[in-house]
From TrEMBL:
It comes from Pseudoalteromonas lipolytica. Belongs to the DEAD box helicase family. A motif (Q motif) lies at residues 1-29. It comes from the Bacteria. Residues 32-207 form the Helicase ATP-binding domain. This is DEAD/DEAH box helicase. Residues 1-29 form the DEAD-box RNA helicase Q domain. InterPro entries: DEAD/DEAH_box_helicase_dom, DEAD/DEAH_RhlB, DEAD_box_RNA_helicase, Helicase_ATP-bd, Helicase_C-like, P-loop_NTPase, RNA-helicase_DEAD-box_CS, RNA_helicase_DEAD_Q_motif. Keywords: ATP-binding, Helicase, Hydrolase, Nucleotide-binding. Residues 405-417, 432-441 have a biased composition (Basic residues). Residues 235-385 form the Helicase C-terminal domain. The keyword ATP-binding applies. One of its GO terms (molecular function) is nucleic acid binding.
Length: 441
């Protein structure tokens, strides 16, 4: 199938061909014609499925072909949960609109507010941003949405998980007019808050449900390794990163401090590694991501902050040095590899502290994740034993079944050994309190 068959303009199709993109993915084949037809969309799409183009293509096409509602206000607003994802969306948008007179502005937290005001004054057609900063501009009226035609939420579940419900409501209210079209993309649709949001935001939406977020990624091989303690994890990590088949690799840790520590450790061992954590300035984060995408270094060590929005085809391995607390985050992390038809490997190190997360992920994926071992690095930890409250309960049940229980006799009320003199209060009643037992008893 060609993009023109989905109603996409030949100029856009050529632009895609320059990027080597010739066939629409599933989500694009479903979402693009639905959005062009003017419907609201509530779409579930797995990470790496091509969802960004699924909303960018109809958006750009609309701006190209249809008359604007307002000359001043942005025509399309794209809201993404993190700076990294917003930057990723913006980059893809810039490629699509290259050589056209369509303009776009990126509005992220951590960047200069006044520069953003200046850019917004130029009346861009597209605004791509993170919810907090967008809300700040709306409050200051440096961004107005009364003429907005298309409102797009990318990874709406994540936006809400990060606590941006009020900002989303604000955006919705300030862009609330009859002609607005809304597209909502989420990794999961069975998320109570996303569900509630969709009812407020969308009008008779078309649901696009292509893959459940807990569906296995066929292009990603998942391997788990048991680890006794931190030193064991580090030894395993070193073993994996030096394998020949590792191209670029992203290592996820639970804490920022660990990103620094592991980066130091790997550099000391002669690997080119850099830490990317949320406490870096936006400029520094972009610099590191840019260097990684240019393959200037091999290993990126990060926390969940960067787990979305990193879209690099050269990432062959994702290593979970620690497992994430939320099972859905696991899916997003491993989705940093095996993108756009490439194969990837996701390795997870599971120590005693990771065990509850492992159980949650296993239940979420509804799958028996396999444990592997590395010769010479097999530890003692074999998983935590299940608590067995049921066994005790069952035994008790059996006993009951074998001997019909005697009717319980009421325990006779305890007689006080010494007569208790109820002290009389001034009102003539005994105060409502229990008397202490005499000490000698
Ligand atoms: P996304 O799910 O939007 O993050 O996209 C994942 C990757 O797939 C990106 O590198 C896109 O450039 C790429 N991509 C998107 N659509 C297609 C397509 N139709 N054919 C090949 N690659 C694609």
């Amino acid at each position: 199938m060609h993009f023109t068959e989905l109603g996409i303009d030949t100029r856009l199709e050529k632009q895609l061909a320059h990027q080597g993109i010739t066939q629409p993915t599933d989500i694009q084949a479903h979402a693009v014609p639905t959005a062009i037809a003017g419907h609201d969309i509530f779409a579930q799409s797995k990470t790496g499925s091509g969802k960004t183009l699924a909303f960018l293509l109809p958006a750009v096409q609309r701006v190209m072909k249809q008359k604007a509602l307002s000359k001043r206000d942005p025509r399309v607003l794209i809201v993404a949960p993190t700076r990294e994802l917003a930057t990723q969306v913006y980059s893809q948008l810039r490629l699509l609109i290259a050589g056209t007179n369509i303009s776009a502005v990126k509005v992220l937290g951590g960047e200069n507010f006044n520069d953003q005001i200046k850019a917004l004054r130029k009346d861009p057609h597209f605004v791509v941003g993170t919810p907090g900063r967008l809300a700040d501009h709306l409050s200051q009226r440096s961004l107005q949405l009364s003429g907005l035609e298309l409102l797009i939420f990318d990874e709406a579940d994540r936006i809400l998980d990060l606590g941006f419900t009020d900002q989303v409501k604000m955006i919705n209210e300030l862009a609330d007019h009859r002609l607005r079209q809304t597209l909502l993309f989420s990794a999961t649709l069975d998320h109570a808050q996303v569900d509630a949001l969709s009812r407020n935001l969308l009008r008779s939406p078309k649901q696009i449900l292509l893959s459940a977020s807990n569906e296995q990624h066929s292009d990603i091989t998942q391997q788990l390794y048991l680890a006794d303690h931190l030193d064991h994890k580090e030894a395993l990590l070193e073993h994996f990163v030096k394998q020949d088949n590792v191209g670029q690799c992203i290592i996820f840790t639970a804490t920022r401090a660990d990103t620094q520590r592991l980066s130091q450790l790997l550099n000391d061992k002669g690997f080119k590694a850099q830490a990317l954590a949320g406490d870096l300035t936006q400029a520094k984060r972009l610099e590191i991501m840019d260097a990684f995408s240019r393959e200037n270094f091999k290993i990126l060590i990060t926390t969940d902050v960067a787990s979305r929005g990193l879209d690099l085809l050269s990432v062959t391995h994702v290593i979970n040095f620690d497992l994430p607390k939320h099972a859905e985050e696991y899916v997003h992390r491993i989705g940093r590899t095996g993108r756009a038809g490439f194969k990837g490997t996701a390795i997870s190190l599971v120590g005693p502290k990771d065990w509850p997360s492992y159980k949650a992920i296993k239940a979420f994926l509804n799958d028996e994740l396999s444990f592997f071992t590395v010769d010479g690095l097999v530890g003692k930890f074999k998983g935590l034993r299940e608590k067995k409250p049921n066994t005790v309960w069952k035994k008790a049940e059996k006993k009951v079944a074998a001997k019909p229980a005697k009717p319980k006799r009421k325990a006779a009320p305890k007689k006080p050994k010494a007569p208790i003199q109820a002290p009389i209060d001034v009102d003539g009643f005994a105060p409502m309190r229990r008397k202490k037992k005499p000490e000698q008893e």
